[in-house]
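Input sequence (200 aa), recorded before submission:
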Amino acid sequence: PQGSEEAKAFVNAFLKRSMPKKKDEAIQEILTRKAVVLEHYSQKKKKPKRKKPKGFTAKQRRELRLFEIEPEQQKYSIFLPLHELWKQYIRDLCHGLKPDAQPHILQAKLLKADLHGAIVTVTKSKCPSYVGITGIILQEFKHVFKIITKEDKLKVVPKFNNVFSLEIDGFISYIYGSRFQLRASERSAKKFKLKGTIDL
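Predicted structure, token format:
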């Protein structure tokens, strides 16, 4: 029956098991109220850590020849559609390359743009044999450009000590390779400072 000693003992024992962090005085205080809220202590499940998939090392990429262009693919005509795509990309990036556009704004955008597919010419160089090389950029690395010429020759041109020019819709931009030694992914986040004179 309600109010009996057995019932009180059962309730006290039940509350101690249900609320192990409470002291006896706190439990007695809770009993004076009509409503009792039982606490539930659940064990937090540890989430298994996801392992990030490991990519190839630089040595493995070289062994697999992932970045090498096969000799039968080294043809200027194959990459002309890539150049057309690049021109459309630059027009979209620069909002149409209008004649009244400010050159320094266009230059800033071109410096951060992806150059794969651009036609560039080496205009100045400390090594005379590089001057005049013109072609489509197939690959850009931190220190070199890989360029395919109209003669279907793949040229590896260092950025250091070379000045490159690229032309699109009548707008000519010059790239000082010595200040351009960055990977394409890093260049998009870099802030380039305008300089009055730049050495090769």
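Checked by second reader. The first strand starts at residue 119 and ends at 125.
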